[in-house]
Amino acid sequence: MKRRIHIMGASGSGTSTLGQALACRLPHVHLDSDDYFWEHKFTKQREITERLGRIRQDLEQPGPWILSGAVCGWGDGLRPYFDLVIFLRIPPELRLERLKAREYERYGTESLPGGSRYADVQAFLEWASLYDTAGPEVRSLKLHEAWMLELDCPVLRLEGDLSVKERVEAVLGYLSYGKEG
User: Fold this and answer.
1) pLDDT value at position 180?
2) CA 116 to CA 15: how far, in whole Å?
3) Each residue of 102-122: pLDDT tens digit?
4) What is the spatial distance between Cα 25 and Cα 89, in angstroms, rounded to a whole number?
5) Whose CA is closest to 165, among 3, 1, 21?
6) For residue 96, is it within any domain?
7) What pLDDT does 181 receive?
8) How many structural domains comprise the chain?
9) Is 134 contained in some domain?
């Protein structure tokens, strides 16, 4: 059984959702990179040294864990902790629709034109829309692909418009068959 699983992908690809769902089925604790990255969620970033100190403390616990979200760049030194990386990729149009819905769920009418969060939401959606086409200087497919090339563990790719249940079953099937590549 893989004890140290990292789930990564573009914002809106479902890394946190899959991490939570797997933690309900496996003896793993779910951790999310946003809890380390942000001092105040989505407004103030933690200093990198503090982020790394906090995340390493949790990753070094003896029990199994699943870490969802992105650590590329600030967490490059965390690669040796992982014994399986799950990479999620969905069509960009679907991902952006999910993000728009999530932002509305999070901020309500404040995310709409005239709302206090509208400019922030639009900037975030613009940033997120670059994932499939941008270079490695930002959180992008190119950055993720290059980052995964440096891993010493297997990568399980789950691509396409799969339901959470389908993703969970794919991961559980992979784990139960002990595939290594």
Assistant:
1) 42
2) 28
3) 999 999 999 999 999 999 999
4) 22
5) 21
6) no
7) 41
8) 1
9) no
